[in-house]
């Protein structure tokens, strides 16, 4: 892996030499996030969010382990234990608010990371595996976040657990027994709370494991970059350390300012007041919504309001409830197929005029709308709007992307990353200068994906 | 242009020094930040506010008759409160000058203005088991006081270690008489 | 190619199902929610004229107000509402002395166990005790309150959106229905046993108006108007919901100031490191 010109780790002291023989961990780090990892020199700030997501994963694990030291997963006492953390435990309020807002920030950086991937087509060959592992991480995060939200055993915890496990009840035949099995009872209770706590503690470590695979897979072709042109030679790259460690350090500082601002001044803004009311299985809050980071998927779930019937009869083929569940899970599952749905040889959205229009005027407004609609009351005009947005969402990934990638004529690509940064590249053959504009769609323009050496 | 990758070649001596200073400052500031995060992470494991608030206990001693002991709970640990008989007092005072690992007189252990009420933690100073002897009919050990069955420490009637591995006498907590009959421990 | 064709087919199919079976019927029956024929409650909360001392990034507690609020809770609210997450010892944070807290705790009676026979008896409170619930359980609470359970107040200021102002608004919301609104919905009537309150989401609340002027006599001589008591109880319940509020904001200033400084340094360091890479024009 990596490039031929990557610097090799050279242990200097006797101890590091001994260490390098017995356990070459410093060598691994040097090659993974040190000077031994050559990275395209043109990465913009959108490339900061991978490291930041890693930071928030660590933050969640650290604060989570701390909170678990004071929490008790029993429906009789769970709500009171959380208040005990907030009132009695030294800095308990800080730990809990950091954990609650840390989850939100984890999702903020992950969404930015994912949308970076959409725009720059980071999912394309040779990086499909990185993308697939990333979608797995996202699914694991959703499961972890959902179970974590149940633990304080407030009203939203209880009704969230009830509604989300109710989704599984929509599956034909096995649905209801599956739902009962999931919560270990007829409604979420002690058994559900205990298993959610157990799994909420376990899954972050599974996520950390998949993150390691994600980074491992990344180091095989190396990072993508905003030009979408693959690295060709040494002048296209700079060592990760100190260049990107410094840039990520700055990025971390900026996000920490935003994060601590939320933590210390608006800690409950992203939460829901009803979760400060202890769970009551006999009374549902006026408006049940999940945490904000699930809003788009919740909007898709609620968009399917009509049963699929045989036209002009009342024979139901698929009930609306099941359609909603299919739509919701399908909306993430389509991400798994992205590398093969979008076959454009050009990666970066910069050089794809048609794709770019659909991205900025289609996908982004749709996602913004879904984020808004997921938290809105289930009444008109929100339902119709969420149906339109959901329809566009699926059209974008499943229909527009395949067709656009077929018919679009990309703009000329720079010869190399060096040219993209410096405006000229001494190695560039003179005749290539005008060629790409006339390249027929589908053919490989200069600088198209090639397997890394 | 590729040579600009290492970039440092053009830095003057002065420039290099300034650059180093900024990196050192940035790294040490980050270090200070990281270190200050450790403080709450460590502090959260210390006793919480409710635990600290529950660290005093009131014991009503009016119902304890001479020769009787009661077990109370103090900071989640057993507290032996006993009213000594005149014979106990005589026996303990007789031993005041004896050769002991942790020499203490009975008066030291009772505290000022306290004639006969012995208050001590029912926690063996060796490894924390609860010694026998406070309850009716329990083994009082070789010195007619307390005996720890875990590793065989013998305490006398005043709770002083006389034989066995325990390093010190049974601990006497701080206490005061809140009223004639109530002792506030802690 | 197969995947792309499959994707197009699935995408068109799913969209068709959504559009034809959900969106089209939805549009055909499209109706904006009708205005309910009862009063819409005032979603907009009101606040005391000068706001609350703890609001804003530099907010601090007004201890005199918190103590007055405590007096309102003790003399009015506590006959129906519990405050179960707050202990008497917490009152020391309202700048009462330890001795005052001990005496205050002793003035409440809490359920205890008779050391002689183990029966449940009332005993004077200790600083470590939590505020006692006025009712033994929810069933008793219902029986005494026209089938409505008075909620625990410890977290009320966080359990409602914009909680501090909500509590103030609710206390001030016992007004006469506006005749103009009433003319719009003549059938509107407050059911027996409920009370009109324009800030309650249901417009009719089970709790009768409590803070009539001079229901408490403030020990600091403040005039006990409804607005004064409402503001005081709102402040007190904000403290019970989030005792660390002021400490949190003060810590926040230091943390953010430090982070801005550290990030500034990180930026300079980053620019220094990258300086040599800049293309020379």
Describe the structure.
Chain A has 453 residues and is mainly α. Helices cover 58% and strands 2% of the residues of chain A. Chain A has helices at residues 14-22, 25-33, 49-68, 78-87, 92-119, 128-150, 155-168, 175-183, 190-218, 240-265, 295-303, 320-341, 353-373, 382-407, 417-422, and strands at 38-40, 237-239, 308-309, 316-318. A two-stranded antiparallel ribbon of chain A has the order 1-2. Chain A has a two-stranded antiparallel sheet with strand order 3-4. Chain B is an alpha+beta fold and 186 residues long. In chain B, strands 1-9-8 form a three-stranded antiparallel sheet, with no helix packed on it. A three-stranded antiparallel sheet of chain B has the order 2-3-4, with no helix packed on it. Chain B has a three-stranded antiparallel sheet with strand order 5-6-7, with no helix packed on it. Mean pLDDT of chain B is 85; it is low at 1-13. Chain B is elongated, with a radius of gyration of 29 Å. The relative contact order of chain B is 0.14. Helices cover 27% and strands 22% of the residues of chain B. With 281 residues, chain C is mostly helical. In chain C, strand 3 and strand 4 (204-205) form a beta hairpin. Chain C starts with a helix and ends in a 6-residue tail after the last helix. The model of chain C has no long low-confidence stretch (mean pLDDT 89).
């Amino acid at each position: 892996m990596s490039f031929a010109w990557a610097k090799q780790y050279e242990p200097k002291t006797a101890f590091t030499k001994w260490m390098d023989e017995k356990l070459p961990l410093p060598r691994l780090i040097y090659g993974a996030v040190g000077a031994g990892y050559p990275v395209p020199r043109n990465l913009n700030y959108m490339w900061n969010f991978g490291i930041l997501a890693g930071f928030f994963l660590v933050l969640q694990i650290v604060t989570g382990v701390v909170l678990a030291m004071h929490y008790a997963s029993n429906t009789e006492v769970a709500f009171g234990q959380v208040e005990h953390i907030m009132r009695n435990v030294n800095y308990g309020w800080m730990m809990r608010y950091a954990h609650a807002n840390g989850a939100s920030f984890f999702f903020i950086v992950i969404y930015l990371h994912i949308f970076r991937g959409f725009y720059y087509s980071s999912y394309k060959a040779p990086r499909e595996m990185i993308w697939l592992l990333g979608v797995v991480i996202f699914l694991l995060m959703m499961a972890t976040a959902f179970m974590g939200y149940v633990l304080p055993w407030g009203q939203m915890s209880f009704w969230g657990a009830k509604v989300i496990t109710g989704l599984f009840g929509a599956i034909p035949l096995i649905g209801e027994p599956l739902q009962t099995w999931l919560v270990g009872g007829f409604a979420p209770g002690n058994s559900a709370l205990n298993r959610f706590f157990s799994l909420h503690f376990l899954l972050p470590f599974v996520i950390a494991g998949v993150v390691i695979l994600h980074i491992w897979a990344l180091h095989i072709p190396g990072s993508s970059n905003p030009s979408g042109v693959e690295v060709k030679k040494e002048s296209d790259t700079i060592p990760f350390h100190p260049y990107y460690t410094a840039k990520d350090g700055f990025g971390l500082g900026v996000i920490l300012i935003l994060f601590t601002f939320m933590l210390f001044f608006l800690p409950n803004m992203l939460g829901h007041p009803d979760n400060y009311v202890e769970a009551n299985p006999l009374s549902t809050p006026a408006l049940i919504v999940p945490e904000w980071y699930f809003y788009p998927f919740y909007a898709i779930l609620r968009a399917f309001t009509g049963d699929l019937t045989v036209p002009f009869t009342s024979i139901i083929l698929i009930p609306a409830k099941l359609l909603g569940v299919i739509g919701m899970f399908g909306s993430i599952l389509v991400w798994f197929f992205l590398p093969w749905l979008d076959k454009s040889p050009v990666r970066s959205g910069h050089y794809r005029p048609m794709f770019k229009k659909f991205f900025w005027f289609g996908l982004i407004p749709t996602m913004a709308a879904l984020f808004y609609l997921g938290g809105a009351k289930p009444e008109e005009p929100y339902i119709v709007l969420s149906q339109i947005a959901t329809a566009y969402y699926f059209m974008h990934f499943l229909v527009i992307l395949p067709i656009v990638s077929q018919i679009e004529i990309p703009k000329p690509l720079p010869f190399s990353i060096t040219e993209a940064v410096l405006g000229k590249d001494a190695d560039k053959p003179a005749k290539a200068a005008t060629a790409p504009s006339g390249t027929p769609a589908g053919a490989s323009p200069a600088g198209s994906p090639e397997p890394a050496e | 242009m590729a040579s600009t990758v290492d970039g440092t070649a053009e830095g003057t001596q002065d420039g290099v020094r300034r650059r180093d200073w900024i990196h050192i400052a940035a790294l040490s500031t980050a270090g200070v930040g990281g270190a200050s995060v450790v403080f709450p992470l460590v502090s959260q494991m210390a006793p919480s506010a409710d635990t600290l608030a529950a660290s005093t206990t009131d014991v009503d001693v009016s119902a304890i008759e001479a020769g009787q002991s009661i077990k109370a709970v103090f900071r989640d640990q057993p507290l032996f409160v006993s009213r000594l008989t005149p014979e106990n007092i005589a026996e303990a005072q007789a031993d005041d000058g004896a050769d002991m690992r942790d020499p203490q007189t009975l008066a030291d252990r009772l505290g000022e203005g306290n004639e006969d009420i012995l208050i001590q933690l029912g926690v063996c100073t060796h490894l924390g088991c609860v010694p026998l002897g406070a309850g009716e009919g329990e083994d009082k050990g070789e010195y007619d006081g307390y005996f720890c069955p875990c590793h065989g420490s013998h305490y006398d009637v005043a709770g002083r270690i006389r034989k066995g591995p325990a390093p010190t006498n049974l601990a006497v907590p701080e206490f005061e008489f809140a009223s004639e009959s109530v002792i506030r421990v802690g | 190619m197969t995947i792309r064709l499959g994707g197009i087919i699935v995408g068109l199919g799913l969209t068709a199902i959504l559009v034809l079976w959900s969106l089209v019927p939805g549009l055909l029956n499209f109706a904006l929610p009708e205005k309910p024929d009862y009063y819409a409650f005032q979603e907009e909360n009101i606040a005391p004229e000068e706001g609350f001392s703890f609001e804003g990034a530099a907010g601090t507690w007004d201890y005199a107000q918190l103590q007055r609020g405590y007096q309102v809770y003790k003399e009015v609210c506590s006959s129906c509402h519990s405050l179960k997450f707050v202990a008497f010892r917490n009152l020391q944070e309202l700048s009462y002395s330890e001795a005052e807290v001990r005496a205050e705790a002793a003035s409440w009676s809490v359920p205890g166990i008779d050391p002689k026979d183990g029966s449940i008896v009332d005993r004077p409170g200790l600083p470590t005790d939590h505020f006692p619930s006025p009712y033994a359980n929810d069933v008793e609470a219902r029986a005494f309150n026209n089938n409505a359970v008075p909620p625990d107040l410890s977290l009320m200021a966080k359990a409602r959106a914009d909680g501090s102002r909500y509590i103030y608004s609710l206390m001030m919301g016992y007004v006469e229905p506006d005749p103009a609104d009433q003319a719009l919905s003549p059938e509107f009537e407050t059911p027996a046993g409920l009370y009109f309150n324009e800030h309650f989401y249901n417009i009719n609340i089970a709790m009768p108006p409590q803070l009539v002027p001079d229901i408490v006599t403030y020990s600091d001589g403040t005039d006990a108007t409804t607005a004064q008591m409402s503001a005081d109880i709102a402040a007190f319940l904000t403290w019970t919901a989030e005792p660390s509020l002021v400490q949190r904001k003060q810590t926040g200033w230091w943390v953010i100031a430090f982070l801005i400084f550290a990030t500034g340094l990180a930026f300079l360091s980053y620019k220094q490191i990258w300086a040599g890479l800049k293309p020379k024009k």
